[in-house]
Specification:
The complex is a heterodimer of chains A (279) and B (409).
Chain A (H helix, E strand, L loop, with lengths): L7 E2 L2 E2 L1 H28 L3 H9 L2 H34 L5 H9 L6 H12 L19 H26 L2 H10 L3 H29 L3 H7 L9 H10 L3 H35 L1
Antiparallel strand pairs in A: 1-2
Helix pairs in contact in A: 1-11, 2-11, 3-6, 3-8, 3-10, 5-6, 5-9, 6-8, 6-9, 7-8, 8-11, 10-11
Chain B lengths: L20 H6 L1 E12 L2 E12 L3 E6 L5 H9 L6 E6 L2 E2 L10 E4 L11 H11 L4 H14 L15 H13 L5 E5 L7 H18 L3 E5 L2 H7 L2 E6 L2 E6 L1 H6 L4 H6 L4 E8 L2 E4 L2 E4 L11 E7 L4 E4 L9 E14 L2 E8 L25 E8 H6 L7 E6 L3 E4 L1 H6 L1
Parallel strand pairs in B: 3-8, 3-9, 6-7, 7-8
Antiparallel strand pairs in B: 1-2, 1-4, 4-5, 9-10, 11-12, 11-14, 12-13, 14-20, 15-19, 16-17, 16-19, 17-18
Classes of the chains: A mainly alpha (279), B alpha+beta (409).
Chain lengths: 279, 409
C-alpha cells in the first residue's frame, strides 16, 4: 500500500508538532536566545553586580534622559497625530494624499539619514540653526534628542489614529451637532472617547520606539556621557570601552521595558476590540 | 434659545408644554421654501416647497436617489441648500448651523454614542447645555419612562435591540425639546415584523408628545401608515403632497399612482364627459372637467377599484368600462388577483394603435390586460376561472393628462 500522506497517523495530526517545532527552531537563534543571553550574562556575576552597574550615576542619567526625551516626543506626536488625523480625514483638499504619504515617510528613512538631515537643518550652519545664537544651539543638547525622537516616531501614532477616524461613522458627530453641541464639545464627548484605544496604543508604540532610538540620536546628541547620552548610546559606549557588565545592565532594563509595553499592547487588545465593537 | 424653554417638570407629561403660544397659533412648525440643491452637475432637489404643521407628521416618500435624504439634511442644517429657505417656527434658519436649530434627527443607524449608557445618551443634550443636575435627572427619568426603557437605563447601546436603540435615539432628541423631529429611514435596518410593530409604537409616541415630525421612507405602506400627509418625491421634484387618502386615491401624476401601490394605466381621450378608450366609453363627468374635448389622457385605477360581473349588471356605484376575458386567477393570501383582458379595439380612423396587443398564445388573444383584486368574501361568492367572459366596471379612478403622448407628437 502506498502511503499518500504522512499528515494523519491514526487520527493524530503529525504536521502539528512538526510545524510548531520548526517554527520554534527557527525563532530560537534569531529571537529567543539573543534575548535570553542578555539575562544570562547580565546576572552572570550575581544580582549585586547587576544592581551596582545599574545605579552607576551615568547609567541612571542615561535611563532618565531616555525616558524623559521619549515622553516628550510621545506627547507631541500623539497630540499632533490626533490633530493631523482629524484634519486629513475631515477635510478634503488639494494634495491631501501627498501629505498623508509624507507623514508616513519617516518609517522608511534610515534613522542615521534622519539624524543627519536634522543636523543639516538645525546645526550651527543649518537653515534654522543659524537663527540661534552660539550659546542657544539646539544640536548636541537633550532638545536635539527630542527632535530626533519626534522625527523618527512621527508616523506611529498618526498611523494608528487615522484609520479609526476614517472608519468612524460621521453620523455620530452629526447627531451630536443636531443635539446642539459645539465642535469642541462633539470632539471632547463623542469623537475622543472613540479614539481612546487608538491613542493608548499609538502612545505606547511611539514611546517604545523612541526609547530604543539609536541611529539618529547618536548623530544629533553628541553622545556626551552624563549630558546627552541616552540609554542605547550608553550601551554602545560601555560596550566599546569593554565594560560589558555596565552595558548589559541597561540592556536588561530596556528589554524589560519594551517587553512590558508590548505585553500591555497585546493584552489590551481585548479592551481595544471591545471598544471597536461598541463603535 | 430652545434650550432655555423650561420643561414643566412637575406636570409629568410632555404635552405641548414647550410650544409657545405664538407658534402654536400660527400652525406651521416648519417650512421648506423653494429649496434647490445641486451636487456638482446633478440636480438633487428642484424648487421644493412644503409646510409641516404643528403636531403633524409628514412623510417624504421616494425611491432612492429622489433627494429625500438631502431635504432632511437641509432641514437639519447638515447640508446647505443652493437656493431657498428653511423656516422653523417663523424663524429663517437657513444660515444657522445644525446645533443652533433645535432639530431632532433620528438617524437611520440611530447614531447612539457608543461610550455612553442609555441614560447618558439621553442626558447628552442637557449636559452640553449645562442644565442643572436635578433638572437633567428628572428629564431623563421621565423620558426613559416615556420610551419604556426603565430596566435598560444602565446599558450600553450595543446591548440593546434595534427597536430599543431607536427609542433611545428618540428620547435623546426629546430631551432638548426639538422644534421638529426628523426620521431618516427609521425602520430601514429592522426586519419586517419589528417594523410594523415599531411604527405603530412611534405613531402612538408622537401622538403623545405632539412634536411635528418628518419621516423619510421608500416604503409606501410605511408612508401610508405613518403620515398625516405624504409628499411624494421623484428625481428631486415634488410630485404631490396630500393626505394618504388623497395621494392614494387621487394621484396627481402617473408616478405617484404607480409608486404608491399597484395601478392600472390605460391611454384614452377625453370627450364630452367620457373617457374614450378605444371602443369603450367610461362616464367621467367630474373627472374630465379640466380637460378639453379630444385631449389625450391617462386613465389610472387601482386593482381593488375594479368590479367584475358575469352579467351586464355591475354593482351600484360602479361605472362600466368594457367587457373582458379572465386570463388568470391567482390566490395571493389576503385577496384574489385576476388578470383580465379587456376587449378594446381601437376605433376606425384612430391612427394611434394603442391597444393592438397581440399575444402569442394559441388563441392569439388581443386586447389590454388589467389587474383586478377581489377580497376573499367576493372571491368565495363567485368563482371565476380563466376564459370566463365578464363585464368590467370601476368604482374609482383618476384621469391624468397624457403629457408623454403630447411630446411624442
Amino acid at each position: 500500500m502506498k502511503i499518500r500522506s504522512i499528515r494523519h497517523v491514526r487520527g493524530f495530526d503529525v504536521a502539528r508538532p512538526i510545524s510548531i517545532g520548526m517554527m520554534l527552531g527557527i525563532m530560537l537563534p534569531l529571537v529567543l536566545l539573543p534575548l535570553l543571553s542578555i539575562f544570562i550574562y547580565g546576572f552572570g556575576n550575581g544580582f549585586r553586580a547587576f544592581v551596582s552597574s545599574l545605579i552607576a550615576p551615568e547609567a541612571v542619567f542615561a535611563l532618565k534622559l531616555s525616558l524623559s526625551t521619549s515622553l516628550w516626543a510621545t506627547v507631541f506626536n500623539v497630540l499632533f497625530g490626533l490633530f493631523a488625523a482629524y484634519v486629513l480625514s475631515r477635510y478634503d483638499f488639494w494634495g491631501r494624499n501627498a501629505v498623508i504619504v509624507t507623514i508616513s515617510l519617516p518609517t522608511a528613512i534610515p534613522t542615521a539619514v534622519a539624524g543627519f538631515a536634522l543636523l543639516l537643518l538645525w546645526g550651527k550652519y543649518g537653515m534654522i540653526g543659524r537663527l540661534f545664537s552660539e550659546n542657544q544651539q539646539i544640536m548636541f543638547t537633550p532638545y536635539a534628542i527630542i527632535l530626533a525622537n519626534i522625527f523618527v516616531t512621527f508616523p506611529l501614532a498618526f498611523g494608528v489614529i487615522k484609520p479609526v477616524f476614517d472608519t468612524m461613522s460621521r453620523s455620530l458627530e452629526e447627531a451630536s451637532a443636531t443635539i446642539g453641541a459645539t465642535r469642541w464639545q462633539t470632539f471632547w464627548y463623542v469623537t475622543l472617547p472613540s479614539l481612546r484605544g487608538a491613542i493608548v496604543s499609538g502612545a505606547l508604540l511611539t514611546f517604545a520606539r523612541a526609547v530604543g532610538e539609536f541611529g539618529s540620536t547618536i548623530l544629533v546628541s553628541g553622545n556626551l556621557a552624563g549630558r546627552t547620552q541616552t540609554a542605547p548610546l550608553y550601551i554602545f559606549a560601555k560596550f566599546n570601552e569593554g565594560q560589558i557588565e555596565a552595558a548589559n545592565a541597561i540592556a536588561i532594563v530596556l528589554a524589560l521595558l519594551s517587553f512590558v509595553i508590548f505585553s500591555v499592547l497585546f493584552f489590551a487588545r481585548d479592551w481595544l476590540e471591545f471598544e471597536t465593537q461598541e463603535a | 434659545m430652545i434650550a432655555k424653554r423650561k420643561l414643566s417638570a412637575d406636570s409629568g407629561d410632555l404635552h405641548v408644554s414647550w410650544v409657545p403660544e405664538r407658534e402654536a397659533s400660527s400652525g406651521v412648525a416648519a417650512s421648506v421654501r423653494s429649496v434647490s440643491k445641486h451636487f456638482k452637475k446633478t440636480t438633487v432637489l428642484e424648487d421644493i416647497s412644503f409646510d409641516v404643521s404643528e403636531g403633524e407628521s409628514l412623510v417624504l416618500l421616494g425611491a432612492s436617489g429622489s433627494g429625500k435624504t438631502t431635504i432632511l439634511r437641509i432641514i437639519a442644517g447638515l447640508e446647505q441648500p443652493d437656493n431657498g429657505y428653511v423656516i422653523l417656527h417663523g424663524q429663517d434658519v437657513t444660515d444657522l448651523p445644525a446645533r443652533e436649530r433645535g432639530v431632532g434627527v433620528i438617524f437611520q443607524s440611530y447614531a447612539l454614542f457608543p461610550r455612553m449608557t442609555v441614560e447618558k445618551n439621553i442626558a447628552y443634550g442637557l449636559k452640553i447645555r449645562r442644565s442643572p443636575r436635578k433638572e437633567r435627572r428628572e428629564t431623563v427619568d421621565r423620558l426613559i419612562k416615556l420610551v419604556q426603557l426603565e430596566q435598560h437605563r444602565k446599558k450600553y447601546p450595543w446591548q440593546l435591540s434595534g427597536g430599543q436603540q431607536q427609542r433611545v435615539a428618540i428620547a435623546r432628541t426629546l430631551a432638548y425639546q426639538p422644534q421638529v423631529l426628523l426620521f431618516d429611514e427609521p425602520f430601514g435596518a429592522l426586519d419586517a415584523q419589528t417594523r410594523v410593530h415599531l411604527r405603530r409604537e412611534i405613531r402612538a409616541l408622537l401622538r403623545q408628545v405632539k412634536v411635528p415630525s418628518v419621516f423619510i421612507t421608500h416604503d409606501q405602506e410605511e408612508a401610508l401608515e405613518l403620515g398625516d400627509r405624504i409628499a411624494v418625491l421623484n428625481e428631486g421634484k415634488l410630485e404631490q403632497i396630500g393626505t394618504p387618502d388623497e395621494v392614494y386615491n387621487h394621484p396627481a401624476t402617473e408616478y405617484v399612482a404607480t409608486f404608491l401601490g399597484a395601478a392600472n394605466l390605460l391611454l384614452g381621450v377625453a370627450t364630452n364627459g367620457f373617457v374614450e378608450i378605444g371602443t369603450a366609453r367610461l362616464p367621467a363627468e367630474k373627472e374630465t372637467q379640466r380637460f378639453r374635448d379630444g385631449q389625450s389622457v391617462k386613465l389610472v385605477f387601482r386593482p381593488e377599484d375594479v368590479c367584475i360581473s358575469q352579467d351586464a349588471n355591475l354593482p351600484e356605484g360602479c361605472r362600466r368600462l368594457a367587457n373582458g376575458v379572465i386570463e388568470e386567477v391567482n390566490f395571493v393570501g389576503a385577496y384574489q388577483r385576476l388578470t383580465v383582458r379587456l376587449d378594446l379595439t381601437h376605433r376606425k380612423g384612430d391612427t394611434d394603435a394603442l391597444y393592438e396587443v397581440t399575444i402569442n398564445t394559441p388563441q392569439r388573444m388581443t386586447g389590454v390586460p388589467i389587474i383586478a383584486t377581489r377580497p376573499k368574501p367576493d372571491a368565495n361568492a363567485t368563482r371565476y376561472k380563466a376564459g370566463d367572459r365578464v363585464a368590467i366596471g370601476l368604482t374609482s379612478f383618476s384621469v391624468l393628462p397624457n403629457y408623454t403622448l403630447v411630446r411624442q407628437r
